[in-house]
């Protein structure tokens, strides 16, 4: 069961032939940006960009819930918060296809089940490797864990910078956008929410 859908998708993207209309679209974009796609440095760029985009968007070929299908019933009496902090990720905003670079923090209060902690990072990556908005990414990760792991509570906090803000438009570097989604006890019980947010901030 060491099948890794992420790794497989990357491998396929590297091997895959790039259709002529895809390369042509990127050449058109280079021309539109003001450069000449026929100059030497740009000759192989369309194929590279096309393959890179397959890789950025490999989450479309991933099933995020797959990573939660191996659950462990034995929690060994552990009945406190499990937190995976500072998970780096990269995504792309669906409005400009510009990079979103950030970190996610995922916490849950187990019910009957726990998972290997790396699986939480894989759920984040499976949703991040798509065209996204940060709010939806946050909600999708939380909902997926909520529905598949059936914990007592889930807290997902995502902090990210958006290329479309730092590199264009208002050009405000170092602005960090923070989103959170709380479910179960972390939504309903103020004390639990405070406890998990304190853990995440510490
Ligand atoms: Zn954007």
Automatic annotation (TrEMBL):
Pathway: Cofactor biosynthesis; 7,8-dihydroneopterin triphosphate biosynthesis; 7,8-dihydroneopterin triphosphate from GTP: step 1/1. Residues 23-200 form the GTP cyclohydrolase I domain. It catalyses: GTP + H2O = 7,8-dihydroneopterin 3'-triphosphate + formate + H(+). InterPro entries: GTP-CH-I_C/QueF, GTP-CH-I_N, GTP_CycHdrlase_I, GTP_CycHdrlase_I_CS, GTP_CycHdrlase_I_dom. Keywords: GTP-binding, Hydrolase, Metal-binding, Nucleotide-binding, One-carbon metabolism, Zinc. It is an enzyme of class 3 (hydrolase). Zn(2+) binds at residues 93, 96, 164. Its EC number is 3.5.4.16. One of its GO terms (molecular function) is GTP cyclohydrolase I activity. Homopolymer. Toroid-shaped homodecamer, composed of two pentamers of five dimers. Belongs to the GTP cyclohydrolase I family. This is GTP cyclohydrolase 1. The lineage of its organism: Bacteria, Pseudomonadati, Pseudomonadota, Alphaproteobacteria, Sphingomonadales.
